[in-house]
Amino acid sequence: MLNISLLILNFTMKIKRYLYIYSLTTSCKFYRLSIAQDLNFGQVVADILCEFLEVAIHLILYVREVYPSGIFQKKKKYNVPVQMSCHPELNQYIQDTLQCVKPLIEKNDAEKVAVVIMDKEHHPVERFVFEISQPPLLSISSDTLLSHVEQLLRAFILKISVCDAVLNSNPPGCSFTVLVHTREAATRNMEKVQVIKDFPWIVADEQEVHMPEPRLIPLKTMTSEIVKMQLYVEERAQKT
Amino acid sequence: MDELYLDNIDEYVNDHNKIVTYKWLSLTLGVHVNTAKQMLFHYLDHKRKESSAPLHATYLVTGKWVENGNTSHKVTVVREEQLEDVKSKMSLTVSVHVYSVQKASLKDSGPLYSVDYDAVKDNLNSCSRYSAIKCADAVPFAPGDTRPAGDSLQFPPPDPNQIRAPSFDGPGNQTTSKPAAKPQPKGIMGMFASKAAPKKQEPGKEIKVEQKEDTTTADVSKSKSASKSSTMSNFFGSQATKRAEKTVKEEETSSSSVKDKSESSPPAKKLKETPNEEKVKETQPKEEKVKETQPKEEKVKETQPKEAKVKVTKEAKVKEAKPNARSKSKRKEPSDSEEDKMETKKRRRIKKPQSDSSDDDDVIPDSPKQQEMRKPPPTPERLLKEKIVSQPNECKRRKRRRVMKSRTFMDEEGCIVTEKGYESESYSDSEDHVPSAKASNVPARAATGKREDEKKSKKKISPPANKGTKQASIMGFFQKK
Fold first, then answer.
1. Which residue in A138, B47, B178, B447 could disulfide with A41, CB within 3.0 to 4.6 Å?
2. Who's near B303: CB < 8 A, 6+ residues apart?
């Protein structure tokens, strides 16, 4: 039943989105919830997740020292301080990436979103994997749901902040990329429809994906009514 | 004491990889904060002797800090490596205790706040259950009790000439329990003088001495806050005559607090709380006599004390920022920042209905109030930032200009904070690190890009989500801002 409603809503999305945008601009997340009955719940969940992923990616870049800490600035998210980058190109890249990922999350096609840190030779050194799954019957019922989810996401942020205790340090000169593992063949649609102009997604090379002898370190798991998420780190045994 | 707590802490630190702060530990195990501090200290000691996995600790150092001839009371969280350095720089170290223990070496102080956030939130009604800071007069109102505090305290309205002396005698007696009881000199300066005295008496750094210090400072602050609340409550006894006295008094308190700058959290909190209480109560008498000519007078006089209060709190915050800007350590006023955040939120809420009610009567005297009120809502996070970034840097950030980069008096560890002020302004700093292929273009774009980023991140809207749609006109309206 939800699939049918999703299809119908896809066609009428433009009109609905007008309301959606208006509600967003007038107030905070809780208002969004009140209009959610008219809207695709998947969209709401996708928004929440993409906001979280943006913060998480920035934090990973900060904690793992992929970029110098000078470009980061403390900002507030979920009522706690988080480090976000100020560099406009980096921010734009991350936002474009997540905007492309968002439709996949909406349709529950994204199985994993991985932030891969690679060394100078573009071999993966570390992988922060967010495994996401949404329950088939999505319903946002309780009032305290969003604050509960906020609390869980805060715990994720905290775990990322202290992950350097369990990980070896990376070699200098690392870069990062974001890989999305999708279910089935959802990427076929992505190649046909460019969500953002001049920001193409390509199938990842085997070289970028395969990590020899990875060590698995689980970081955090969360279960809520709207989404289940797991974060773990795969680390190469020898980094340098 | 049984040794189970050592195993508990060990489990939290090593197995769960948590950051164990003393506040979190006290709320989790249900013990007094001072016990929690001692537990952490013993645990750290124990583990260091065993020399097992490397542990990192942070410490809370409190003391007198002299900077450019200005003395201030500084409360700072420092890493273990910086502890001796900071202690030696303080003119008088009042207290040192373990703040947190963790496996990870933290790059910044953000997670320390996050750790306590949820613990305090879960115990919101009783978060001060195990606290060492107590005030007998700080009793929450019973639900449904809307009487102003003045009635319940039942203080006789004092003579205007002797406003200070009698109001201090009553609560001043509470301090006789203090071990070093002294005859309180009359007046507000007397409060600060007596507070300074116990500080000088005990420059000890041990935890036990620090415990005693906590209680003495708590007592002094308790008496100070009690007397302050009594002086405030006196105003509600008889309203008409007290307005003039109040303005005089508020200006005195503001000037005296500026002079002394003693900023341990209880008095600062009380100073902010009592203005809040006052404002709440003032709405009631105001609403009672709306059409009299009195309201106009009251409002004019009100804006003065309010501005004084807002100035006091803003000055307090700015001055907190100033000495903290100079510290070579991770800085954060843990209880202050939380309380300040809550205070600003509280202040916002209480101020809003007031301005709404007074809008009808007179617009002009309210506009300065409203402007100040507008400042907190858009920038509650900015206040947090203000405390962290030093004052001159904050001005630079607003103007978004590249300013002199000569502020190199910090060494690497402390630069985390001050560099940020420059980072946002002058991209030339980061050009050294970031590949400088577009060095010339980046600075020009960075200033505008950063401004947009700030707007984007602050607004919590997801503008990229709307890029593909045809409602660009709606978003365009907001992006122009």
1. A138
2. B365, B366, B368, B369
| Chain B environment of A52 (Cβ under 8 Å) | none
Q: Which residues of B touch A73 (CB under 8 A)?
A: 420, 423-424
Give long-range contacts, CB 8 A cutoff, 24+ apart: B320-324: B320/B263, B320/B387, B321/B386, B321/B387, B321/B388, B321/B389, B321/B390, B321/B391, B321/B394, B322/B67, B322/B70, B322/B72, B322/B390, B322/B391, B323/B65, B323/B67, B323/B70, B323/B72, B323/B74, B324/B74, B324/B76, B324/B387, B324/B388
pLDDT digits (tens, 9 = 90+) for B55-96: 899 999 999 988 888 889 999 999 999 999 999 988 889 999
**Residue (of B291, B297, B303) closest to B351 by Cα position:** B303
Out of A14, A63, A102, whose CB is closest to B107?
A: A63
A99/B464 Cβ within 8 A = yes
Beta carbons of A84 and B457 less than 8 angstroms apart = yes
Q: Which chain A residue has its CA at the smallest distance from B109's CA? A: A81
Contact A196 B467 (CB under 8 A): yes
Neighbours of B58 (CB within 10 A): 23
pLDDT in tens, A49-73: 999 999 999 999 999 999 998 999 9
For the question of an ipTM over 0.95, the answer is no
Chain B residues in contact with A89 by the CB 8 A cut-off are: 449
d(CA B273, CA A239): 54
